[in-house]
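S1.2 Input.
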Amino acid sequence: MEDGRLHDRLNSLKEHLQLENPLLVEAVGSFRKLDKVCRGLGLIGNDQSTISQIAWWPLISILGPFSAGKSTFINNYLDIPVQQTGSHAVDDKFTVICYNAAGESRVLPGTALNADLRFPFYKMSEELEKVEPGEGGRIDSYIRLKTCPSDKLRGLILIDSPGFDADAQRTSTLRITNHIMDLSDLVLVLFDARRPEPGAMRDTLTHLVAATINRRDSNKFIFILNQMDIAAREDNPEEVVGAWQRALAQQGLTAGKFYRIYSPTSAVPIDDPALRQRFEAKRDADMASIHTRMNQVRVERAYRIVGELEKLAREVEDVRVPELRSMMQRWRSGTLSRDCGIFGALGVVLAALYVLTGHPFTTGVVPGWLGWVFGEAWSTILFLLASLGLAGWLHMLARKWSAASVARLVSKTYPHGPLREGLLRAFYKNTAPWRSIFRSEPAGWGVKYRKMLVSVIADSERFIQTLNDRYAHPSGVTAAAVVPPPPDPEPQGEGEAQPA
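S1.3 Output.
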């Protein structure tokens, strides 16, 4: 059953979406159906929701190493100096920037993000605590919320990350970085053209480039060489660009757009008029392309959310349920093997005791020294109950050992995060003492939930068609233009309603 606090947060999300995009309100209902399936399987807890795995507002994150010009880029885009800038590291927090209609900028602590389902850092303190015990209580030292009255932020969220350095970054910071890359609609990765030896940033390039180009959503990453005005002062500025292109190619980025920009407000003067004109033309063209791509995320956001709904629904049946079946099969085999070992060893011990005691079978098949057990009915019943109890305890011990073995394998196979936690939760639900080891289907999986998943997938397809009707018109006319005019009203008799 859905947790009460989660229920209130989801209703709050629906109220906000009702004002902006009613279609997504329907999507919330479909996510709730998906939650019922995942909750029944044990993949999520009562206080969790698949809704929290995605960002409901269009989200653009800006990543890059120290002094790559991330904050300056944001200030120029918003036309408001919302972020502090400098030639050295001036910020060590992830800053979420959103619109404020009150006409003023405010800085709010990380708890404002941690407790709000609509933002990308919902319950991040719990994730930090799992990665590094004690860090969850220091959420304010990792993230913060800033509001800004710039109209460009209407219906949009920007995230400015602290300077990135993969080989020096803390585990918790890398965890947050990976989290925002997963949730973002667009990721701008900025590099500093003033560093002529990109090879020295090998670990950073590996994390920001090599680890992203093979992702399913790799097209949302844009790589930008910033502060090109400095390179213009070099004897051969094209060599600077070439060095970076070779560095990116070594990480596997051999295709795709590579932008070159610099800030028009803080640029170093370029004395050569021809060179200045060439650099400005390239900068303006690339900046226009970047801004156009940023403005598209509002439309792409709706498709992303609906796409995630279908993807998650299909993953449950096509990936998670088979994974659970495999884990249960491994657990079953391990339990039976341990049962054979335990009871086989017990049989050997009993046989050895009989031989070593030297007592023959004096009363049929029962050794003489066990004759007292079967002398009275009450002693026979107690002996059988004790034997069954011992056998049951040993079997449960075998189940527990086998489950622990499978759990260790899952922990090694899957990285730390909600997926691994969900699989372990679902697996332990299937290893409860009252469940037989011979059950082939995971707990909570049946015809009812299969039909519910089919319904969720059908909902997602219907949502996509609705979005296409709104944003795509392959026939050349809008949906409103192809609606036939109403027929002429026929004469109606007395007392009949007239058409509105």
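S1.4 Remarks. The two ends are 45 Å apart (CA to CA).
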